[in-house]
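Q: I have 143 residues here and want to know how they pack in 3D. Can you give me a structure?
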Amino acid sequence: MKKLTTRLMIATAALVVAAATASAQTMIAKIPFEFRADSRVLAPGTYRVQLSYVNGAQIIRLVNFHSSQQAMLLAQVPVDPQKAWEASGEGRLVFECTSGRCALAELWAGSDSRYAYTVHRPKLGKDEDAYLREITLQPGKAE
């Protein structure tokens, strides 16, 4: 009985690992400006962007290729991607920028994704105006 239970636990663990790996999407983004991702400030550079489904939540992971600086964010509200994005099929990172800073605001992983995901970002000041900057994502390889 113990042997059967152990084998079933190992098989279940293997299935969970396979499912988590299968649900991860990895893309590459060249971000030419400093930006905020949640509470971290990240330098300009080339980033591996990974969207994973873990325990019922969408997790966004950004890793700088050169410095290995990284941030992990919990995706917030799923929204419909813009029609122009769907037409191109290319994933997007959207940044909300003011005169002094940019913050990651939204991610769409491309034509394989039904939804885009917003992320938590600092609130704008009373008299601050923001504009959006989009970075196109390229297909990438997992770690």
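Q: Anything worth noting?
A: The two ends are 38 Å apart (CA to CA). The chain is about 20% helix and 45% strand.
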